[in-house]
């Protein structure tokens, strides 16, 4: 939907009106046939139709384009009243800046910021409302440090609140201790498994070294036996040589 034409000051060119809602264009798009529409209006129209609502030429969402620059400039220069005019705002500004003004307008109706309060007040009156709002919060005057709502003043009990907080803190600490305990046990189990695994690997390596040592000793004994045999053969050859 476009901007209500009744809000505008002076004459508004027909070409700046939406061909569907007949209000002043809001977030405009233009069809190839040069008819202009509010984005929301033309998207809603094309859900059920496939042509221009003015001349019935076939159009598609992909064919829609932004408004010509000169038309966009004419649109932005239009002067209109703030939508809060009925509440007392007398501001008249260009369409280009109306959104910025209305976001900050002192006459805008805004919700109370206190949780649970459904009242809407003018922005300029918000501080006054917050001062008397039944949902406003403040620190307990008795010094317990609790933030209480005005509506809870008669029910607030400092001792009970502190006991409740103490129980919550106690429960939270127990939970944290249990979590720390479980985490430590998990780490110890992980380290224990790692050590067992390392011990198994070392044991296998020791057995392998023993096996290698055994083979080496066997080889040494074989070499020593071969050396004795060789020495005996040399001695026998020496004896034979002497006899000859």
Tell me about this structure:
With 244 residues, the chain is mostly helical. Among the domains are: 3-102, Zinc/RING finger domain, C3HC4 (zinc finger) (Herpes Virus-1); 107-146, no CATH class. 50% of the residues lie in helices and 11% in strands. The strands form 4 sheets. Strands 2-1-3 form a 3-stranded antiparallel β-sheet. A two-stranded antiparallel ribbon has the order 4-5. The chain has a two-stranded antiparallel sheet with strand order 6-7.
Q: What does this entry show, briefly?
A:
By secondary structure, this protein is mainly alpha-helical. Helix content is 50%, strand content 11%.
Question: How would you state the average pLDDT, rounded?
Answer: 87
Radius of gyration: 47 Å
- Major sheet summary line: 3 strands, antiparallel
* SSE string: EEHEHEEHEEHEEH
CATH architectural grouping of the domain at 3-102 = 2-Layer Sandwich
The CATH superfamily of the domain at 3-102 is identified as Zinc/RING finger domain, C3HC4 (zinc finger)
Principal-axes geometry comes out as: elongated
Parts with pLDDT < 50 across at least 5 consecutive residues:
none
CATH class of the domain at 3-102: Alpha Beta
What name does CATH use for the topology of the domain at 3-102? Herpes Virus-1
| Helix proportion range | 40-55%
Largest beta sheet: what is the strand line-up? 2-1-3
- N- to C-terminal distance: 135 Å
Secondary structure: number of strands: 9
Strand content: 5-15%
What's the layout of helices and strands?
Blueprint: E1 28-30, E2 36-38, H1 39-48, E3 65-66, H2 69-77, E4 79-81, E5 92-94, H3 95-104, E6 109-111, E7 120-122, H4 126-132, E8 137-139, E9 147-149, H5 158-243
Antiparallel strand pairs: 1-2, 1-3, 4-5, 6-7, 8-9
